[in-house]
Every structure is written in structure tokens, then in C-alpha cells.
Amino acid sequence: MTFVCISSGDPASRNLLQTLHGIEVELSSPWEALERLKGAKFDAVTIHLPLEECNAEDLLEQIHRTQAFIPVIICDPNGTVADAVRFTKLGAFYFTRAEDQGEFRQILEWAAEHSRSCDLEMLAHGVSSEPWRKFLVGESRAMQQVLQVIRLVGNRRSTVLISGETGAGKEMVARAIHLAGDRRNLPMVAVNCTALPENLLEAELFGHVKGAFTGAINHRVGRFEQAHRSTLFLDEVGDLPLEIQAKLLRVLQEREFQRIGSSETIKVDVRVIAASNIDLEQAVRDGKFREDLYYRLNVVPLHVPALRERPSDIPVLVHHLIDKICLQEGLSPRRLARETLERLANHSWPGNVRQLENAVEMAIALSGDRDTLYPADFPLPRSPRLDSKAVVAWPAISFPDEGLDFEQMVAHMERTILEQALRKTGGNKAQAAGMLRLKRTTLSAKLKSLSADARIA
Fold first, then answer.
1. Which fold has domain 133-303?
2. What's the mean pLDDT when you consider all of the chain?
3. How does pLDDT run across 392-419, given as a tens digit for each residue?
4. How much is the pTM?
5. How far apart are CA 174 and CA 231, in angstroms?
6. What's the CA gap between 290 and 296, in Å, rounded?
7. Pair 309, 428: CB distance under 8 Å
8. Contact 302, 273 (CB under 8 A)
9. Contacts from 100-104 at CB under 8 Å and sequence distance 24+?
10. What's the fold here for domain 309-377?
11. Which residues of the chain are in CATH 1.10.10.60 domains?
12. Superfamily of domain 392-449
């Protein structure tokens, strides 16, 4: 195994690495390491904090630009929980116990195995030529449609409007679009339009000059200016106040704006990607969203399917999340019992991928030292509540005086449901079974017992 170690010369870090027999380590400064990564393949990179030469977050971003899939392990003996959360979200593995040689070696070995697995996966799915694919896991028809749109619009300047339920992965799709284009050498700038109060949102987007309003004690560069020649992601854009919507429309049309309190016009070259989990067309009809802004944003519409719409992706997602979480936590790999995977595949997941990831993380925590995850580790509701939009309204049944054939009536309803599920999935029985919360074998048995016509069978 060969690693690049980035350190400012901390003796403890160097001593720890040099005692790891059978592991080849190259000690480098940050800039030397980036040059080495451009010309050679390594199993992983370790960054030992604190660094004197540069910011660790900026360095991590540069490393991932150079080799998108290389594991990066950050060693910080003075790290806090907040530091761990921040670096984990940026795609690194965080380690604080610098003196624990055994655990550190285990993390290094697992990182090397993870790197080799990624190489094989990239060869199998063509990800080596499409680094942005690392953000999107799944091979279902619904995901293939998303991937195709990303390939088509990645290098375009066109604004993309991403729709989908909360937790479906809209920000991951936005990051994939950014990395698929020629602006990928600069970081994507993201703004959550719901997280900021209205009185701060304008300053966040467009910036302000010193003294522009009470509390403006310094000059501030807004997100549009930060995203010059890059991508600006506006998450939950449907929650923007109408006044801010008008100013956003002007920026999209004119590609220029003014900071609050300034008369200077600033021109920007920004590619905008917006996302919303609400129906913006309905918001336009309700007068809550500007129609002209909607059409300006909706140049390329892209819908991210809910997890229940792509149940065939659940097994690969679960295994991906298990590997990711175990590696982050420095745990040995976990496997799934067959009945566990069946239960997960048949759940409705109203919280989508985010809920699935939380469930996997909780299951790993509850499993202790066991290497197998069982259904009891996933305390999910036995009968998941269906979303109100998914409730089927059956027409009233006219009950004749002479009675009716109950079995025939139930069979007719059952046949109708199966037809609709298969029609929605293009005849894919595995996906239809997932939509109906059935096992695929159960669905096949029902189709056979109902003697469905050729269109179903």
C-alpha cells in the first residue's frame, strides 16, 4: 500500500506512519503532494493537522479535483465533534487518536481496499470518464434518465430547475451537473433559501458595503459574486420572498447586480441551478412565485425520482451507505441478512435517500460488534404510511339487490392495481413490486393466479 502523507512536520504523525510496517509512505508538503497526485496513483492521502501552509478544507477540495475518488484521511489530535462533522461532509475520513497505531492501520488498510473497489466500480460503470457519477448511486431506468440529462446539460450554461421530494438527492444532482461541466475547476456555491431570514437573504445573495444598514460593519461579498465563472445552487428556491424573486430575475436576465448600499454595477458569469420540493407551477397559480422567474429558471427541468419510484436501486444504495459509514467510523465491514434486504426494499421511505442513510447509520450503531445487520437493527414501521398523493380513490361500488360475486370483484380490483403498477414501471416487475410493497415472487404469483391477459403477463 502506498500513501501520500501531508504534514507540517509534526513528529508524532511522522513517527506513527514510520512504524507501520508494510505500508509505503511518502511525506510531502501540500503543494508537493498535489503535484505527485497528478502523475501517480496512490491508495490514499493522509493530512495531519494543523497545517501551516494552507487551509485544510481548500487542500481537501484540491485533492478531490486532482483524483476524485482517492480516500483522504484527516488526522487531528485536537479535533472536535464539529470538525469531524464538517470534514466528513466534505468527503474525508476523520481520525483523532493519533497514538492508536492499530486503529490507524486498520483505517489505512480499509481506505486502500475502498480505493481498489472504487477503481473496479469505475471500470464497470464508466465512472472513470465521468467523475461526477460518484454522487449518484443507482442503475434503475429512472436514474438512467437523470444521468442522461446531466450528460446533455453539463457543459451548457442553461439554467436547470431540479424538482423532487425532500431527501431525494437534489443537491447531489446539482453537484453532479456542476462537475460534469467546464466550470468544475471552481467550487460550486450553494445557498439554502429557507435557512436564512428574509432581512439577511438579500445581503447573502448580492453582498453589501460597509455601513449599508445597521450591523453592516464590514464589506461583504455575496454568493453571486463568489460564484463568478462557477455554479450557484439555489436550494428551496420556492421559499424566496417575492421582493427577492424580482431581484433574482434581473440578475438572471442581465447578468449583473448591485451590492446593498452601492451604486456600482457588478457583472458576473454564473451558471444557476435551482431546486425545489414544492410544485412551483402551483405556487405561480397561488401568486406565491413569479411566473416570469419560473420560466427563467425552468429552462431545463430535471426531476429526481423518489426512492419508492426506483426500488431496484435500494440494495446497491444500502451497500454503498454501509461501506461509506463503516469507513468513516473506522469499523469493520458489515453485511446484510437476506431478510433484512427484503424488508428495506419493501419499505416506502417517505424521507427518501436521507431517511435510508439515517436508518443505515442507526442500524450500524445498534449492531455493536456484530458483522451482520438483521431486521431488528432497522426499527421501521411495519405498515409505512402512504403519502396522501399516493392514496387511490376508488369509485363507489353499486351493490345490486341480487348481490355480487365478491371474489370476482376483488380479483378485478387486484388486476387493475397490478396493471397500473406495471404501466408506471414500463413492465418492470421488480420496480412494480417495490411500488406495491410486495416481494417480486409474490407479484409474479398474483399475476399467474389472476390469469392476467397478455398485456400484463
1. Rossmann fold (3.40.50)
2. 80
3. 545 555 566 677 777 777 777 787 888 7
4. 0.59
5. 9
6. 10
7. no
8. no
9. 101/16, 101/19, 101/20, 103/330, 104/16, 104/20, 104/75
10. Helicase, Ruva Protein; domain 3 (1.10.8)
11. 392-449
12. Homeodomain-like (1.10.10.60)
**Grid cell in block for residue 394:** 376508488
* Residues β-bridged to residue 205: none
Taking 3-state DSSP, the helix, strand and coil percentages for the chain, each rounded to the nearest 5, stand at 50, 15, 40
pLDDT range class, residue 113, cuts 50, 70, 90: low
Amino acid at the residue 369: D
Contact assessment for residue 205 and residue 260, using Cβ atoms and an 8 Å cutoff: no
**Residue whose cell numbers read 500513501:** 3
Task: Please give the C-alpha separations between residue 206 and each of 44, 194, 219, 359, in angstroms, as whole numbers.
Answer: 39, 16, 12, 39
Q: At the top level of CATH, which class does the domain 2-125 belong to?
A: alpha beta
Q: Report whether 192 contacts 236 (CB < 8 A).
A: yes
* Range 164-195 burial, b when 16+ CB lie within 10 A, else e: bbebbbbbbbbbbbbbbbebbeebbbbbebee
Q: Alpha helix locations (H) across 45-100?
A: 56-66, 81-89
